[in-house]
Amino acid sequence: MKTRIANTNDAVEIAAIYNQGIEDRVATFETRLRTPKDIREWFDGIHPIIVVENEQGIVAFGSTSSYSNRECYAGIAECSVYV
Fold first, then answer.
1. Domain containing residue 30
2. What is the C-alpha separation between 6 and 49, in angstroms, rounded?
3. Which of 42, 54, 55 shows the shortest CA–CA distance to 14?
4. How many Å apart are CA 78 and CA 83, to the nearest integer?
5. Which long-range contacts (CB under 8 A, 24 or more apart) does 59-64 make?
6. CATH number for the domain including 39?
7. What is the pTM of this model?
8. Of 16, 40, 20, whose CA–CA distance to 30 is shortest?
9. How far apart are CA 3 and CA 32, in angstroms?
């Protein structure tokens, strides 16, 4: 297995993993499935995304995102991991 920084070319595989979490209703409160285009918007240059891959492709990812747009939370991020 290899861990690396994700790039926009990984959006299809990241979306598949994320959508599995949505469909299982265990990993997230989200209900709307994400498209690869939605995932590409996560690449904002601020919050890193990493992927873990094996010979078959990406098997997990981790990302951070803004916790809140309120000024008092500036610099605070939410961390997510999906396997």
1. 2-82
2. 5
3. 42
4. 17
5. 59/1, 59/17, 59/83, 60/17, 61/6, 61/10, 61/14, 61/17, 61/18, 63/6
6. 3.40.630.30
7. 0.89
8. 20
9. 28
Query: pLDDT tens, position by position, for the chain (83 residues)?
Result: 999 999 999 999 999 999 999 999 887 889 999 999 999 999 988 999 999 999 999 999 999 998 999 999 998 999 999 99
The structure tokens listed for 79 are 């961390």
Q: Which residue reads 């790039």 in tokens?
A: 7
Token code pair at residue 7 = 């790039």
Look at the block and give the residue holding tokens 């595989």.
13
